[in-house]
Each structure stands twice: as structure tokens, then as C-alpha cells.
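Methods: example folding runs. The two proteins below were folded one after another, and each record is reproduced exactly as written to the output file, sequence line first and C-alpha cell line second.
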Amino acid sequence: MARRCRAVRPHSHDSSRQDAADKPPRWGVERLWSVAPTIDAYAAALVDQRDVEDTAAAASSVAADHADLRVAQPLLLGPTFALSGALGGADADVVAGGLLLDLKAATTTRIVRGEGLLWQLAGYALADTPDAFALRDVGICALRWRSRWVIKLDELIARLAGQPVDISDLRHEFALVATGTPPET
């Protein structure tokens, strides 16, 4: 099952192995020319067995670490926002009862260091211009490190702005910058 899922929805890069972290994917039609047109054949051609084993090894820990999310309402995987189209199709990993989580599965801590990821979280939250998901908290899950960091959305925005900011006003401003027009109310 894991092999088939990886073949059907390949990731933008393979972050599960250290040696592949900085290399672009080798997704090309040429890898499929010599295989039968079946899911199993595509999986064999596209999915590295080490990735399947790595995913299987981490799965039970990831499920246990996020068991609390199962009861959250709404619980949405891959949600998009009102401004997702204007932002090139931006989608989050998880929205769980007002909490937006970005999941990171890298083997190194490099991905969760620096301000870039914080700005990404803020961007997702601001892209929800009508506040359809009632986001109040945002966070990062370092899956392999079995760690979750969560902050109140208004606190994150205040820290990034250097002062308290009205999120509704900021969403309006964000929409103007992203689209050139005010958001629909």
C-alpha cells in the first residue's frame, strides 16, 4: 500500500534520506517507457524500496504522536484557502480544530530552523481571508524528531510584525497584495 501511495502521489523531493535531501527528483516519463501500464509496474519503477521501508518504520510513531488530532473538528488534510489560487496553489498539511500544522519529515533539523517556515505558516493563515477555518493556532510537527511546536496565531503575527496587529486587517492587506483586489466578505 505504501509503495502504491508513493507512486500515485510523488513528493516534490525525497526528504526521507539524507543523501537525497538536496537533490531534485528524477521524475521523468523516460522511467516509465519500458514498464507495463499498471500501478504495480509504475510503483516498481518510481518508488525506492528504502523509502517504503522508511515510511513503514515511522508510521506507527507518527500515528501515536498525533492521536489527539483524530477527534478534532474539522480535521482536514491538504486544505486550500481563499487565496490559494493567487498564491500558486498553496495548501497546508493539516487543519485540526482551529490549529494549522505544517508537517516536516526531514531526517535533519535544518528544515525547521529559521524564519522562513514561520512566514510560510503566517502566509497560510492570512490566505484564509474569510477565516473559514477559524485558525487560532499554528504549528510545526517534526515527525522524525517526534516534536510539535505550536503558537497562538496572533502571537506569531505580532512577533513577525514586531508589534500587535489586527489579523482581519492584515488578511485584507494580504489579499490586496496577492490579488490586487480586496477579499470578498
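Second run, written to the same file directly after the first:
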Amino acid sequence: MPIQKPPLLIYARLVFGLVLFGFGLALVVLGGFGVSPWEVLHQGISRRTPLSIGTTIILVGIIILLFLFLLKEPMGVGTIANVLIIGLIVDLTLSLFGEISNIFPRVIATLFGPIFVALGSGFYIGTRLGPGPRDGLMTAFNRRGVAIWKARTLTHRRFMCYHRFDTRRYYRMGNSLVSTFSRPLSTILSSALRDKRLAS
């Protein structure tokens, strides 16, 4: 029996979700009140090298992909797309908006950034086309006997050795928003695909 390819709607949802995710990350960076744990790493590398934040995101993602490949972890189209699209969108957004000095738009960017990240996560995670490389690293630890919460702590909070208070607040807010949006978005997509199959 031939393998059924995912419909175009799934790929569109994947790309749309990753674009939203990258846009949200860029808003948090523009806000300047603290970033997520992985962005602490990306921003730190970017500030000490000629690399942009987006390029750093891509390069770190590629390095993690190599580890996942060596560990024989499952990857998919979504894993590769995650590495490429998010970094490009972050750089594009930062170049369009430039540096924001006024406090009010910075606050707005900081408040709405995690919401866009959560929406983007809800869209692309539900496609089941492969985890992002950083989530794949967490599940790789879990497959080797490390509890999920310990794996998440190891892969996320280790980069918070130098941070602001808002970094931890962003971390907690992001987790809550992803949980809030991912399930209803997955339900909507599943219903749409079911209706399409019934109509055909």
C-alpha cells in the first residue's frame, strides 16, 4: 500500500506556524526585557561574533541536528523547516523594525511576542512532521531514561546562568500559552481534514 503524503494544508500550517514562531521570537528580542533560555544562548553568540541572531539560530539548529542524527533520533520535514525558517524570519523581522528605543512599543512587543510564539507552536507542532531540533534534543534525553521535566531543565534552563527576571517569566508564560493554543488548533485542523475527506 503506497504511503499517503500529507495534504498541502498540513505543509501550509507548518510554514505558517514557523513564521509566527520566528516573528514572535523577534518581537521578544526587540522588546529587550529578557528572552527565552535558548535565545540567551543565541543572543550571547551573536553579540560576540559577526553572526546575526537568525544565523546563530540556524547554525545552532544544524549542530543539534547532527547530534540527533548520531543518536538516531526520528526527524522529519518539520525538523529541517524549523531550523531554516525560524532563523530567517527572526532576521527579517529585526531588519524591518530596527532598534526600538521607545518604552511603549518595547512593552507591546514583549507582551505579544510570547503569544505569537505560542500560536506558532500550536500550528506547527500539530502537523506531526517532526519536532524542532531543540525539542528533539529533549526527547532524546527522555528516550535514554531522563524524565521529561529533567530533560527540559537540562536543555532550557542551563542557558539562564546569566539572565534577567523577565527571562524566567517569559519561560513560564510561553509554556502556558503553548499548552493553551496547541490543543484547540489541532482539533480545528483535524475537523477540517475530516470534513474534506467526507466531502470528497
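Comment on the second run: Residues 9-193 form one domain.
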